[in-house]
Design a protein that fits this description.
Thrombin, subunit H; globular; single chain; Trypsin_dom; 18 strands; disulfide bond; 3 helices; serine-type endopeptidase activity; tryptase
């Protein structure tokens, strides 16, 4: 990884040398068809496998964010989501406002660009939070796949936090989004998987900036079930990114701290994005995905000292793996 002028750690980028010296037994799978690879290609949640491949004469990254999926409604891209289990995808509840008929939705896994030839998986069931009322609170949902995912170097699950694991104010994390090169391009331009560097900010700052949206007598807009993050640099974070994952690195493991819920306006970049806090909904997630466990986790540097005994909820293959 490189370092930006601001001192931020950058994601690895493709280079000519990346096509050579691929380490680990996964080297062959990285350049073969990744979606026909079955077990034991499961490594544990929150692990990336960045490599580069030649596509139409150009080097492209693959496997950087292997949990990220695109959600389709009647075959059209509408939202993003993240793989948290071999049968479950996490997203925002408002992404399902069009219909609660699971047969109308599907997800694409293992893709770097849209439209893509990635594996399209049908859904069996939709679970939206029971308190979601088409507003911004409780904006979380789970999609149950009809068939289990076959893990590959390009398809791996993300880790989830328990209630005690939260990012500290000022922590630098990443929003993983499906974006276009420019908001001015033609509507049919392809989407590509991109990352946005974001910084966690205080809810009080969010409330101050969004106070013009307060209802009469309302004292705050941002609830305990939300996280605020401001974009630092990277892709255009105001594109169609509902359901995108907000991830932070904890001891070399990526943990999804939030699900992108909404942002105010693409033309007002000084307004922070609002994310559903995954740690706030740990118990709700466990209620839906019953075969999960909790594992003690060492305190990472980016967390607040009061959370020194934080835990991580790992949800791959229906069980937790100690990394």
């Amino acid at each position: 990884m490189g370092t930006s002028g601001a001192g931020h750690q950058l994601p690895m980028a493709c280079g000519l040398g990346d096509l050579h010296g691929l380490s680990s037994p996964l080297s062959f799978a990285r350049i073969a068809n990744p979606l026909i690879v079955e077990e034991p290609w499961f490594w544990g949640c929150g692990q990336t496998n960045l490599s580069c491949k030649m596509v139409k004469g150009k080097l492209v990254e693959a496997g950087k964010w292997p949990w990220q999926v695109s959600i389709l409604f009647m075959g059209m891209y509408i939202c993003s989501g993240s793989v948290v289990h071999h049968l479950w995808v996490l997203t925002a509840a408002h992404c399902l406002e069009r219909s609660l008929d699971a047969s109308k939705y599907s997800v694409i896994v293992g893709a770097q660009h849209l439209p893509a030839k990635g594996t399209q998986l049908p859904l069996a069931h939709l679970v939206t939070h029971e308190n979601f009322k088409n507003l911004i609170s409780d904006d979380i949902a789970l999609l149950k796949l009809r068939d289990p995912i076959l893990w590959s170097p390009l398809v791996q699950p993300i880790c989830l936090p328990t209630t005690k694991l939260m990012p500290a104010i000022g922590a630098s994390c990443w929003a993983i989004v499906w974006g276009r090169p420019s908001v001015k391009v033609a509507p049919k331009s392809p989407y590509s998987l991109q990352e946005v560097s974001v910084k966690i900010i205080k809810s009080e700052i969010c409330n101050q900036q969004y106070q013009f949206l307060f209802l009469k007598g309302q004292k705050k807009f941002i609830g305990k079930d939300m996280l605020c993050a401001s974009s630092e640099w990277g892709a255009d974070s105001c594109q169609v990114n509902s359901g995108s994952s907000l991830v932070c690195q904890v001891n070399k493991t990526w943990v999804q701290m939030g699900v992108e819920s909404w942002s105010f306006s693409c033309k007002k970049h000084h307004f922070p994005n609002i994310y559903t806090s995954t740690s706030h909904f740990t118990h709700w997630i466990k209620k839906q995905i019953t075969d999960v466990q909790f594992i003690n986790r060492a305190h990472p540097a980016f967390l607040s000292p009061v959370l020194h005994t934080g835990y991580i909820l790992l949800v791959p293959l229906g069980s937790l793996w100690l990394l």
